[in-house]
């Protein structure tokens, strides 16, 4: 089964002996495979046959030269990749490809010493100012980057650089440039089954949600089930943005400390939602350092306060075109029946919701959303 087939599976949780949630191991493993992020492209390390199916038993369509970069479309349970090359699509062995993880350039998130070797034990060659983009030449096993700056090359710490550049977008409506409503959900779902039910319903009913889980939430689900909920949501055509690691009010923190809260186990992307929607100059500095734009909301259901399904649905259903609606994954809006009602109520007023992602052309089946959101969301 390929990735797109596996994501259609619904995980089942049943009460354990002590009433705790118990996941079916086989289904969890299938979701794990489905949630593993596909690389955007691969480079062949040998002259490689592209075949009509994911094993050597299938016929050869053509041979891809060594060193060729090809676009990835899917991955089979065997590990073979479905790729696009020469106007055709077919399958290649994962044993003769590599994923390039070296960025072309990085941007400094602090004034940063460039050294003669990949650690602080080496001498300083220059100091690179905050916000400078430098060309990447190599990367050491320590994670440090070899870069080019001011006519010389040297090494800089990977802890103080980013590959993202904050996009320009309105704070309350983000990258939604359409008249459609974006339904967004913060924090953390109660269970894996509830999470999977909501995103599966959204994918099946052409709804593109924006999810903002905390880093602690992502770590918890990885620890409990071995499932990356951010990757799983993307696999079902949903968008995922940053919401910090532990959900503190960022305003009392320094720019550097707040920037650290936006990294770590949090979602690594180019849009983020500050906890509590709290923003000041220091918070803006932190988002700029990590290359993220701030995306808050234009309509708050206050579902955390009302704790009422009917009120939450009614408030979300009152959204106007282009609204970003705030809800939370642990409350009543994040469920198939609530999503159904909200979409139907909005449609009755002539207002549409953001659509599930179907690629840049907006056609065909629901596909995996990219890690970085586009400047204009294809709603």
TrEMBL record:
Pfam families (alphabetical): Polysacc_deac_1, SH3_3
Tell me the Gene3D superfamilies matching this sequence: Glycoside hydrolase/deacetylase (3.20.20.370), SH3 Domains (2.30.30.40)
| Record domain SH3b: where | 37-100, 101-165
List the transmembrane segments.
none
**Which CDD domains does the entry mention?**
CE4_NodB_like_6s_7s
Indicate what this protein is called per its UniProt record. Answer: SH3 domain-containing protein
């Amino acid at each position: 089964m390929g990735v797109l087939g596996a994501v259609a599976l619904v995980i089942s949780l049943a009460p354990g002996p002590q009433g705790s949630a118990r996941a079916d191991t086989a289904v969890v493993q299938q979701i794990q495979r489905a949630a593993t992020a596909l690389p955007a492209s691969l480079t062949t390390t040998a002259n490689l046959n592209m075949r009509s199916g994911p094993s050597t038993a299938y016929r050869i369509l053509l041979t891809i030269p060594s060193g060729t970069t090809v676009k990835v479309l899917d991955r089979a349970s065997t590990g073979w990749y479905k790729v696009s090359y020469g106007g055709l699509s077919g399958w290649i062995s994962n044993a003769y490809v590599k994923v390039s993880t070296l960025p072309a350039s990085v941007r400094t998130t602090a004034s940063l010493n460039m050294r003669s070797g990949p650690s602080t034990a080496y001498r300083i060659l220059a100091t690179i100012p905050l916000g400078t983009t430098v060309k990447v030449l190599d990367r050491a096993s320590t994670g440090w980057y070899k870069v080019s700056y001011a006519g010389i090359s040297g090494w800089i710490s990977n802890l103080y650089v980013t590959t993202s550049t904050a996009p320009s977008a309105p704070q309350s409506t983000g990258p939604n440039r359409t008249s459609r409503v974006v339904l967004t959900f913060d924090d953390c779902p109660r269970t894996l089954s509830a999470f999977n039910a909501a995103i599966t319903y959204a994918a099946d009913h052409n709804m593109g949600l924006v999810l903002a889980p905390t880093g602690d939430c992502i770590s918890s689900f990885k620890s409990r089930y071995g499932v990356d909920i951010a990757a799983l949501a993307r696999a079902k055509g949903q968008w995922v943005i940053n919401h910090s690691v532990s959900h503190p009010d960022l305003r009392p923190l320094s720019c550097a400390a707040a920037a650290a809260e936006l990294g770590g186990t949090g979602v690594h992307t180019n849009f983020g939602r500050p906890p509590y929607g709290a923003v000041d100059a220091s918070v803006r500095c932190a988002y700029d350092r990590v290359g993220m734009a701030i995306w808050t909301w234009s309509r708050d259901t206050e579902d955390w306060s009302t704790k009422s399904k009917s009120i939450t649905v009614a408030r979300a259903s009152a959204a106007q075109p282009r609204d970003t609606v705030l809800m939370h994954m642990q409350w009543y809006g994040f469920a198939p029946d609530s999503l159904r009602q909200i979409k139907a109520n909005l449609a009755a007023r002539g207002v549409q919701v953001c659509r599930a992602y179907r690629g840049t052309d907006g056609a065909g089946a629901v596909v995996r959303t990219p890690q970085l959101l586009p400047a204009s969301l294809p709603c």
